[in-house]
Design a protein that fits this description.
single chain, 3-stranded antiparallel beta sheet, 7 strands
Length: 193
């Protein structure tokens, strides 16, 4: 019984130490909080005016960056622009075994080697790297870059009629025979001359 009590105390201490470490890490890496509302923004009931919360309301609740949408949308553009600007040229593995996506500008010389989480373009980050595709995302959208892009299909050749094919082949043979010296003439034609 005492052994179980010691085990429970040990686990609770470990858990609280781990939780404090994670909390301290979040506090160090999180952006500074906005200033509290000024005294003149507080109404008679002691609550801040609703306008004081605009900065909080604009930030998306369920997104890790908690950046306002308007700022990211202005930077990000749309998914058609990113597909027209960049193409996936390859996926390789670095020395540590992590996948690396190789991108090249379609209308330029710039080439990038990106791992998961790195930015491709303003507002677009690499979220998934697979063997045959890469997914980049911004706040609202995801775009998939396929390693093998389909090429535009050549117009199909109209089917030829069998009789016409045979006729063309026979005509070619006849022309070849006529062009050869001494062929196509009979002995009667020579006698008549």
């Amino acid at each position: 019984m005492q052994r179980n009590l010691i085990r429970k105390v040990f686990y609770s201490l470990c858990f609280s130490l781990l939780a404090n470490t994670v909390w301290a890490d979040e506090q160090l890496t999180s952006p500074p909080q906005q200033d509290l509302p000024l005294a003149n923004e507080i109404d008679a009931a002691g609550f801040p005016a609703i306008d004081a919360f605009d900065g909080i309301v604009q930030r998306p609740l369920f997104h890790a960056s908690r950046r306002p949408k308007a700022d990211q949308e202005a930077e990000a553009g749309n998914n058609a622009e990113i597909l027209e600007t960049w193409r996936l040229t390859g996926v390789v593995f670095n020395d540590e075994g992590a996948p690396v996506a190789l991108f090249a500008q379609r209308q330029g010389e710039e080439k990038l080697r990106l791992t998961q989480g790195m930015p491709l373009d303003s507002g677009w980050d690499v979220s998934v790297i697979a063997a045959d595709h890469v997914v980049v995302s911004n706040v609202d959208e995801e775009v998939r870059f396929d390693l093998w892009e389909p090429r535009p299909a050549a117009p199909p050749e109209p089917p030829k009629d069998r009789r016409r094919i045979i006729r063309e082949a026979l005509d070619e043979k006849l022309e070849e025979k006529e062009q050869q010296p001494g062929s196509g003439s009979t002995g009667d034609e020579i006698n008549e001359k």
